[in-house]
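This follows on from our talk about sequence and fold. Please put the record directly below this note.
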Amino acid sequence: MNAAACIALGAVLAFVLPAQNVVDRATHTSGFVRRDGVRLHYVEWPNAGTAVVLMPGYSLTAHAFDDIAPALATNHRVVALTPRGFGESDAPEAGAYTIATLVGDLRTVLDSLHIARATLVGHSISGTVATQFALQYPERVVQLILLDSYPYFNQEGADSIDALNPVATPEFSGDTTYEAVARYLARYRFVPWQPALLADLHAKPMEPEASRRRELTAAYIADQWKSPPQLQGLTVPAVEFCAIPTTESEYPWLRRGSRDYTRANRYVRQHLVPLAHRLCARFARTAPRGDTIVVAGSHYVFFTKPARTAAQLARIIR
């Protein structure tokens, strides 16, 4: 997913106005760690096992993992983080919104929670953060697991491929209420709709705070493209979940057999699928101890297929 697409989706995901109580069925505890006065939110599924730290992609919160974390917590201590600038974490105006800042935040959280070593699971841009952390502090990483995370996305020509998209996703419009946003996402983005999305949406701030945060956090994406981590320097075992798109995962609202579906299907087969395979292959040949798991689905496969994703993670986490 390119920078423009990340920010556009982030705008929708953050555009939740009503101040409602979080509808959260997950059996976790919730807390905050402070770094230089900035509160960093986390949720935890306690267990005596080895630590697994879940890190969400751009604009998402720790609650994004509510559907998959319980399955992992049967054998592990599971902690999910909300990066600064998102959800219940603080968004200081003077803060540097860089990958290096997030790496420092991650170290502070691990130290504060007395986690000496952990398996890091990073989705999208948080995979870049987890990778950079593993490069700087390999002694603290048991294993690196990336959920469809490619810091070299643009280097493979993704922006030019995105420009060929024949069917644009309809823009969000209508009442700026939770119900309206939920209906939009359930039709155009996340099919089938899952409980974790409910908790994630409710954890986000209201406008105008949401707009302020989008302006700040867009810097994360620019910083990732400017200085991607050097995968060849990794010394820890690493696994990439490679999401291979389908027409249904990318265009869930299109009716099979329609003219738009036919155009979208051709685009997916001729452009998106080859790109996904190139990205996956690049990771496998670049990370010295890298392995790949190929799954059919969208960039948000842990949302749309949580049971399958949790089972696959449980099999490979050490």
Remarks:
- The chain has twelve helices and eight strands.
- Confidence is low (pLDDT under 50) at residues 15-23.
- The radius of gyration is 18 Å.
- The beta strands are 29-35, 38-45, 51-55, 77-82, 118-123, 141-147, 238-244, 290-296.
